[in-house]
Amino acid sequence: MDLLPLFEWCEASWLGQLVRVSTWLFPVLESVHLLGLSLLGGVLLVVDLRLLNVMLRDQPVATLGRGLHPWLNRAVALMLSTGFLLFMSEAVKCYHSPAFRLKMATLPVALAFTYLVRQPVVLRDAPPHVWRARAVAAGSILLWLTVAASGRWIGFSS
Ligand code: HEM
Hints:
Layout: H1 4-12, H2 14-21, H3 25-51, H4 61-89, H5 91-95, H6 98-123, H7 130-154
Helix pairs in contact: 2-4, 3-4, 3-7, 4-6, 6-7
C-alpha cells in the first residue's frame, strides 16, 4: 500500500502548514528536539556506562536507574512530540528519505527494548549479572545511536 497520499495529507494539514509557513517554528522545534536528544542521550548513557562499569562504580545500578527513570520518560515524550511536529511540516520529504524510514523502523525497537528489557533490569534491586548488564548496555547504545544518526541524516536528504 502506497502511503504517499497519507504523507501528502499530513504536510497539507493545518498543523503541517502552521509549522511549514512559520519562519521561526521549525528551527525552534528542531532546537527543542536537539535539547531533548541531549537529555535523552545523557540519561541513557549515565546508566549504560554504569552497566559497563565505566563510571559511577560506587553507585548501585538501581539507584541511578530509579533516579533517572522519570527523566527518561520526559525526554522520550519531548522527542516524540517535537519529532511529530517536525514530521508534519515536511512529511513528503520524509516519505522519500531512506534515513527517515530507517529511523521509524528503529525507533519502535529502541523504545520496546528500553521499556521491556532495559528498564526492568536497571530498576531491579538485585544487581544484574555482568554479561546481562553488558548486553543490555550495548543494545541500548547501538539502538539509540542508530535512531539519532538517522535523525541527523534526514537533514541531508534532499
Ligand atoms: C526519541 C526519539 C528520537 C530521536 C533520538 C531523534 C533524533 C533526531 C536527531 C538527532 C535529529 C537531527 C536534528 C538536527 O541535526 O538538527 C532529528 C531530526 C528530525 N526528527 Fe527526530 N528523533 C526522535 C523522534 C522523532 C520522531 C518520533 C519523529 C517523527 C515522527 C522525528 C522526526 C524528525 C524530523 C522530521 C527531523 C528533522 C529533519 C530535518 O532536519 O529536516 N523524530 N531527530
